[in-house]
Protein 1
Amino acid sequence: MNNILYRSRQKENLDKDVLNFLSSLREDVNIFYYDILGTQAHCLMLNKIGILTSDELSKVLYSLNKIKYQSKNEGTIQYIISNELSFEEDIHEQIESIVIRDIGIDIGGKIHTGRSRNDQVVLDIRMKLRDDIMDISEDLISVIKSLIVRAKEHKDTIISLYTHLQQAQIGTMSHYLLSYSFNLLRDLDRISSSFEKINLSPLGSCAIGGTGIPIDRNYTASLLGFQGLLENSIDATSSRDSMIEYLSFLSILMTSLSRIAEDFILWSTSEFNYIELSDKYSSTSSVMPQKKNPDPLEILRSRTSIVIGMLISSLSIIKNLPSGYNRDLQDLKPLLWNSSKIVKESLCIMQGIIDTFKVNKKNTLYSANKSYGVSLDIAEQLVMKYNIPFRKVHKLVGQLVQYAITHGNIPLDKTPQDEVNKMLNSSKIKIDLDELMSILKDIKPKKSILLRKSYGSPNPLQQTGMINSIEKSLLTYAKVLTERKELLFTTINNLDNVILNTIGDKGN
């Protein structure tokens, strides 16, 4: 039976090297279980329309159930090896071969009626991606929750905010963590939205133009938990845009994680020393005993490039394909599986790091105090108090900063009063000298935070509002996720029950 199941026209078996070149066995291991489920649903439909008798259906479902549970117990790869299936082209052919070997071709040879590997593989991929989307969504919600927990801890932890990697304004560690949360929340929205486009059934579209057999596509879709059909048979079998979109969303998510990783890497250096990674999430040097390297974060950065590369590869694969199924599409599968795997692993690592890193509050405050991050706050207070054009005040404060830097990086309030007076006179700005000196002395990093009034700023009241907003959004996404998981669990459980009832005594 090996290597000849689908070779009706050809008189010779495939060359061994050609077969190895064509085989998708390694990638298809990921959809083995889903292919069995899809085949069982298809056979129930064939019985409904009279292609399979009840006795034939019982034998087919029993044979498929044996494959399902034996492969689960042994492990799919070991099961394939033990059944000597390494000479098949793909999982679909393998499963059909086992059934025919088990119950004979007169009955087993009917299970492919009204379908093609072309609609079969898309069905399997979509079922696998449904589960991947839910797993990634769940992991992403957990990461955002961890960020919120740490943000609550550090609402008052002063830290410099940076633009161009230069100290810009004063903020809080909470504000940084909340910025990551909002970013990842958008990633969650994108990933979650892809579920609706993936959860459509292609089964029954056959090779490209449908079938003359009166199949019931809606019935198989409902048995497998799909919310609808991919209507056009050409589109259903050959389009992969929803999968490319999924990969693009994963690439964007990995980019978000990589940017967080870069901040943590910088902040954990001796030069910054803002945070310290847990020993569980850092490596050491083979020769330098003092080293504590952020290797997991560095690997995450690298894996981001790999996921982006797989997106580009997938786009390149499909860009010149004519309508209809082409074997090129086979190579999309490892890109999908590997991208999903990397994202799941990266989210796990990122959550562990977020949960365990320590913040060196004294260092973040010292660095902020040493900086000139309050300069804009000083300028804005002068604008509001004296109604002076901002550009004039901007120049005055810039002169103060320049003097402080060139005289040993002294604090602004340590600038000699006569020097400040000279600057005032040259700027021709009417500001009371004593009051200006008082403002310079009064506005320090902690005061700077409290002076912020704008919506979304690091002000503690704004941070509380942002935390509440994110938590509210997470509840909504968690509810949607729970509903999807429960629906699919119930659907597949009902399918199993129908199968067991059909098998009857054979299942015992």
Note: The CA atoms of residues 152 and 464 lie 8 Å apart.
Protein 2
Amino acid sequence: ERLWLAPANDDHWPDDRRVVRINMGLAFGTGEHPTTALCLEWLERHVAQGMTLLDYGCGSGILGLAALALGARFAYAVDNDDQALTATSANAALDGVTDRIFIGAPDLLPAVAVDVLTANILAGTIIELAPALAKRVVPGGMLVLSGILEPQVRLVAEAYAPYVTETAQTARDGWVCLTGRVRGG
């Protein structure tokens, strides 16, 4: 409703949408896969002016770039894959937001806590990283976890139960996006 995803060479989009241009095919994250679409839909409904976001496992950078287009003040995009970091850098330059995004490997991430953390990666990795990811979100901030198959939801929810309240889930084509508000204190 608020966002328009466009290939890098497309110069035509609706005037009433915020545009994110992507070099298609350089890394995971064109917006078409159900896991990415679920995250983008959540971002459209919840990103407010001035927020900060960390996209853990950024792929093409689409989630961080979408948050910036929707009004986030700053985004952090991290990935273990050099090709993903190259794609995110290229897409940030294409969208003119290189001054509002950190792009790097997870071990280079500054000591920050953000308003929203997205992780659209494999469920096993999401479970393994539960304590580390929860620490990267301010109390009252949101975790948005996707890349989860329906049979894996219970295990992911259990791993995050000590860290979040107000959990919710949405599903599409057998994939789930699980969200939760990080506990205060």
Note: The chain has a mean pLDDT of 91.
Protein 3
Amino acid sequence: MLSREEKNKDLEKEINHEKKVKLSKKIMKIFSLIFISFIIIFSYMYFVGTRFIKTKEYLIKDNIPNSFVGVKILHISDILYDSVNENDILSLENEIKLINPDIVFFTGNLFNKDYQISNNEIKILNNFMKNIPYKLGKYAVRGNCDNKNFDLIMDNTDFVILDNELTTIYNNDNLGIDIIGLNGNKTSINNNNNNYTITLINNYDLYHDYQISSNLVFSGNNLGGEIKIFNYSLVNNNKYMKDYYKELNTQVYISNGIGSNNHLRFMNHPSISVYRLYQ
């Protein structure tokens, strides 16, 4: 027959075992919840966050030449085709046709740098860029991911590729707007005139390497931070992560882009931008 002391020890062992079982169950529940939450968040970032391309609309009030007041600009950037597909491109094409822009700006990165694009995909992108409607002009700069296939895709699309170049666009009178395209390699561009100036650059982080003056800058590359928590990016350490900045007399608009480097987005849907010019 067991003594009272032995019974108490057995009871203590049983109680400790029950505590361990309960603790193990709690830990398993916590890990299960964390795992399920991770799967849900990851699935959202992959299947939802990278889809549903938004159209962001802005009014740009500035010292615009009279003939350009009311002109509609479409800005697209960072298609990164391997993270989107043909259906996405077709849907985007239909949306752009409804917008029916006057001027189109593309600020680079048709596909991710290491992606081996096929001839069929080159054709898809070529048709997309060719079918973008315009009235006054289509202009583009190369992105940091764009390689020799960029020229194959952009061939016969009516886009003017600006490699550290300046061109002037007119609309019914002799007062034009200068368009500068920067390719990321530091150089000097002479824009010492009184024309209203719009600059295109893939990565605005590099803009200050140039000694130029702009009224308006359109850029991309940063993808709005891709994965953001309370406006802080978890994967991108570039300086400029917001949609809009005002630096001295220069207004800067940075596109969220269409694709994704990591095939993931959170709290930061892909987008295109539409701007209407006003005085």
Note: Residues 205 and 218 are 12 Å apart (CA to CA).
